Amino acid sequence: MEVLAAAETSGAHVAVLLVELGSILFVLGLLGQLAQRISFPVIPIYLLAGLAFGQGGFLALSASRDFVNVAADIGVILLLLMLGLEYSADELTASIRTQTPIGVIDGVLNAMPGAALALIAGWGVPATVALAGITWVSSSGVIAKLLADNGRLGNRETPVVLGVLVMEDLAMALYLPLLTVLLAGGGTGGIFLAISIAVATIAVVMLVATRYGHHVTTLVSAKDNESLLLGILGLTLLVAGIAEALKVSAAVGAFLVGIAVSGTVAQTAAELLTPLRDLFAAVFFVFFGLSTSPGSLPPVLLPALALAVITSVTKLATGYIAAQRVKVKRRGRWRAAVALIPRGEFSVVMAALAVAAGAEADIGPLTACYVLLTIIIGAAVQRLPDRLKPEPRRRRAPQEPTVAS
Amino acid sequence: MNIDITNRVLPGIGVCQEIDLRDGHRIGVVSRRNGLRDLIFYDEEGEGAAAAVSLSEDEANAVAEVLGAPALTFRLAVLQRHAEGLIVEQLPVPADSPYARRPLGDTQARTRTGASIVAVLRQGAAVTSPTPDFVLLPGDLVVTVGTQAAIDQVAQILDGTADSADRTPNG
Q1: What's the CA gap between A258 and A299, in Å, rounded?
Q2: Are B16 and A154 within 8 A, CB to CB?
């Protein structure tokens, strides 16, 4: 009888879990359709949905909490894995060679406002470092979508914009371990150790990827898609777990696996993993919204708005300077400038790390507002540069032969 | 004839190739890793897109074939001029052809007539250098190169009016 009763409660538990999970995903599907129709990025929509579902929101979750929790962790890992798969090691080394100065300018200009606000608010070092990172990194996902939707992929300034994103993503491979250690409260020794491990790991992975990338690739490559999917997912979770145990952060481990896998295998893996990433990343953004209570938003709205405006301006400067370096004309410089404004997945990842470590209560709601505002501002000003007067075009070859008198 | 193509790597997305046309316009093609192709028409500055269309892999192939087909005809015309006595003809595959829905190799056209089948035109698209296992369909146009006599023989084979290797008088 006891067994039966236990089975009954577990049955009820499963039922509640399925209903909760089902309603979340179903609503996300509807919202995604809406976003597609108005051609708006989905990340802010997912965040808003999470806020609506969360503590004090329209619908509080009970049974599916644990599952959503784990799914959110996997979401981060898949986000970073896909990011790594998108870049080949050669692209990364080429970017480091040519884009380092602009990467430094980008970091300094955009991390400072976040750090400044945290210092004004009297936050501790870990939360300050987190907020600096949150305002620093633009969203590769949102920006790639906006560029494609606005037909800007072929533009002269687009490689520059993508170059900035590559540098930021690479910088995160160092910044995330640093943040993880700081949040865990490790002393100077711990920080030094973690950074050393991270640098060594990245160096080894880059070396392995450029020299022996095909071996890693052979390890997971398979004739059938099913084995490839399981192989790469397994390897990624394994490395992410080990990285987490070494306090290098699971996300970084996943990112490095993505970089190490190359060629057609990377392409096939990216195709296979896209639906999984979409599912788990959606859960991650919703989870972040869920863990933020809507009541905590109004007090942080003003600081978030100020931060969004200031860091939009610093991003404008970054994009403008980056495009100017490669002699793009004025209109293209402004297009590069507005493209970089949206923040997204990395900012949320860092805020989630900070929240999980219990660093500062306000950082969650602040980041949720901030990310929403930067994406709205970014999407709103995206088409403004087109109104600028065009500069006359330099012809590569004279159009008409000049008449010699 | 020498046309410069400028390549730009787009990290994480693919590659953009840009061509300057002789009338001063500039066009570009973005090849994304996921198979999509974007066709770009640049604005008066030549740096930003005035218009961009996204093509699926199939659409891009269709456009490429439509654009490439005249080049094939042009090459055949050159061939025709250079080789005395050789002509090019497009022979239809009628609906009642004995070789409709059968592999090209079954016609044994080259062995039996000496003429070469260099391409098959189907619904406006050209399949160049078809292999023996290429299956002919009613309505296909078979582009054949050879002497007039050889081409006439191929036409008869396709029509089913030639003495066929696999249709013996007793059969």
Answers
A1: 39
A2: yes
Interface A-B, measured as beta-carbon pairs within 8 A, has a size of 94
CA distance linking residue A81 with residue A189, whole number of Å: 29
Question: What are the backbone dihedrals phi and psi of residue A159, each rounded to the nearest 5 degrees, phi first?
Answer: -60, -35
The strand pair at B14-20 and B5-10 is best described as antiparallel
As given in the structure block, the two tokens for residue B93 are: 């595959």
pTM more than 0.80 = no
Q: Compute the residue count for chain B.
A: 171
Task: Kindly state whether A166 is in contact with chain B, defined as any CB-CB distance less than 8 angstroms.
Answer: yes
Q: Report yes or no: B24 at the A interface, CB cutoff 8 Å.
A: yes
Mutation target for A interface from B29, B47, B54, B56: give the one with most A CBs within 10 A. B47
Element (H, E) at A259: helix A250-260
* Chain B residues close to A400, C-beta within 8 Å: none
State whether residue B124 is helix, strand or coil.
coil
**B34 contact residues in A (CB cutoff 8 A):** 271
Among chain A residues, the shortest Cα distance to B25 is held by: A395
Question: With an 8 Å Cβ cutoff, is A226 touching chain B?
Answer: no
- Output the DSSP codes for A204-254: HHHHHHHHHHHHHHHHH--SSHHHHHHHHHHHHHHHHHHHHHTTS-HHHHH
β-bridge partners, B39: B29, B53
The per-residue pLDDT for range A184-196, each reduced to its tens digit, is: 776 777 777 777 8
Which chain A residues are Cβ-neighbours of B28 within 8 angstroms?
154
Q: Does A266 touch chain B (CB under 8 A)?
A: no
B102 DSSP assignment: S
Q: Name the burial class of residue A294, with classes exposed (0-12), middle (13-18) and buried (19+) by CB atoms within 10 angstroms of its CB.
A: middle
Helix (H) or strand (E) holding B18: strand B14-20
Distance CA A289, CA A299 (A): 16
Per-block mean pLDDT, blocks of 10 residues, chain B (171 long): 80 88 90 88 89 91 79 62 71 88 88 86 80 87 86 89 54 35
CA atoms within 13 A on the CB side of A193: 9
Kindly tell me the sign of the dihedral angle through the C-alpha atoms of A141, A143, A146, A150: negative
d(CA B125, CA B123): 6
Chain A residue with Cα closest to B27? A154
- For chain B, say whether A399 makes contact (Cβ under 8 Å): yes
Q: Side chain identity at A386, as an amino acid letter?
A: D
Q: Rounded to 5 degrees, what angle do the CA atoms B17, A87, A251 make?
A: 155
Q: How far is Cα B19 from Cα B27, in angstroms, rounded to an integer? A: 5
